[in-house]
Design goal:
The structure holds two protein chains of two kinds. By secondary structure, chain A is an alpha+beta fold. In chain A, 42% of the residues lie in helices and 27% in strands. Chain B has a three-stranded antiparallel β-sheet. In chain B, strands 4-5-6 form a three-stranded antiparallel β-sheet. The chains are: A alpha+beta, B alpha+beta.
Chain lengths: 502, 159
Amino acid sequence: MSEFERQHPIAAVSRAFGLIRGNFITILIFLFVGAQSDNFPFLWWIGGGFGLLLVLGVANWWRFLYKIEDGTLHIKSGIFVRKDLYLTKDRIQVIDVTSGLLQRMFGLVRLDIQTAGSSSRQAAIDAITKVKAAEVNRMLRQAGAVNTEDSIENQEFEDTPLTEQELLKRIKLPAKELLIAASTSGSFGIALSIIATVFSQIEPLISESELFEYLFGMLPSQTDTIMIITVIAVFVVFAWLLSFFSTLFTYGNFQLDVKEKEIVVSRGIFEKKRITVPFNRIQAIHITEGIIRQPLGYASVHLESAGYGDDKGTGSIVLYPLIRINNLKKLLNDVLPDYQKEFEGTRPPGRSARRYIFRSSFLVTAITGFVYWQMALNVWIWLIPVISLIWGWKKYSDAALGWSDDMFLLRNRRLSRSTAFIKKKRVQDASMIQSPFQKLRDLASVQVFVASGDRGKSFQVRDLEIEDAKKLIHQLRKNGVSTTDSAEDELKSNQPKLPGWN
Amino acid sequence: MSEPAFHKITPRAIRVWQFGNLVGNLFFFAIPAAYAAVFGLNDFHFWIVTSATSIIFIAWMLSIFLMPYLTWKNWRYAINEKEIDLKRGVLFKTRTLIPLSRVQHVDTRQGPLLRWYNLSTVTISTAATTHEIPGLDTQLADRVRRQISTYARLAEDDV
């Protein structure tokens, strides 16, 4: 593979489809508007547009060349402006193999090679045969794991060509868990907003049609309230179905392979995805217990990588979509044996409880009061501030910080409770922030940044005892050196065992 | 390890900030001006425009005469062979610790105003965040940049 090669010609088509999918809503609106006027040369436009996209796709395909030499991936691309991109295997964070429907028809895959820089977004090979993909994968990974912090021990591997790494463990997602994950998926809200957007676009069209009147004629009652409730109910059911099936299709066939030096996550029913993350590229682990999932005793496990991750640029990768809290420790032990799972922790002191409660309820209460006063609403509206009070209390009681010789644990709650496990040597920076009011009460918030995607990801715990916040900074300063002096100096009443799962 | 020695930033930075705020914050007066242009200046609107203008005027004055001084007074930085320690903030006091092994690159930059006063800003980037030490004397900034990059090279480590 030391000669330049082109992708499979299907890349041209898949690129055109990618462009269509990226501008789907625009095209949809365009279609609806176009379909309404008669003298609009409608088909011409569509045909011409698609033809143009195909020409662009073919040109892109023709100008896109790649080769691998001495562990460096060299990509030439660009129709008019030529771009040369070099990726060294030592810098590869994540390798991502996707096969969409189109690619699968021709036995192809899409290969994303992610480094910590966002320019590696362009280092995606759209269509490549499975055999070649495996070869690229192998060539780029051979010594990829060698160049690490423990490179001394691994030096011996450098010359010997590494054979395919041995599979240590394979964990699958049981069907029951998949169904629960789908039905409690958090993308519910997103689905709702998608439906609302689409509906708002097509609403003027269908409200004119007779179908709509017919449908409303079918409904048993004509009062406004019932109609609104029906519409909302239909929306909710649709949104739920949408999120149910999208989760089902995304996480179907889920499989987690643990190898000697890397984790391979494969998932997806229609669009298959295979993500390879070397162990030494894992920046942090965080566990999310959603508001619906937590009472059921379930959580999802994510890892942060410095690659660009998804389209939004966050480097979060789902390590395991849904697991019983009771089995979580076993899973983490299986997959990440070098992460410490239990910590001596500390919680915000009692005096910060009211700050948490005030923060989450102040605005809500003010707005409710104003609305109640202005519009003379039902007394039940006061339930909303009460809920926000409880929510603030929950936030307070969930906030916690834990540490050990080489790790931090940060836990907080927004809507769902999130617990982050971060190795000290993966911390990019740590801050301690104190507002004037916190200063009055000797409190401080801490914030820890890890590398993830384009911008990094921060984890924070608010309103800690100032001494605890200082200790976190101090601990990071020692950075891995064992901390015998500060570990056992105080025994406070609010020193919980973290994370508190069995 | 003992606490590293903290340094203040160059006092000339106050002048730069004062001048920058003097010009830059003029923009905020456009808000009541635009309001007045849309709604006119009759009775009720007059009071909104006047009060908004006076609030903005006070904030503008503070941002010229008080804030630059306080910002300067609260800024501290320390660099040693293991980490960079930044303390800043007038109301919200922030202290940030950046392990040197996490530093991806350092650079100094200089706008026209800073150049006039012979000052530079040192920018420190990690894989996740970017931090600035503003308003250092240009020679000092270069020294700080060299210092950081030397130390960072010593503490070679992966992302």
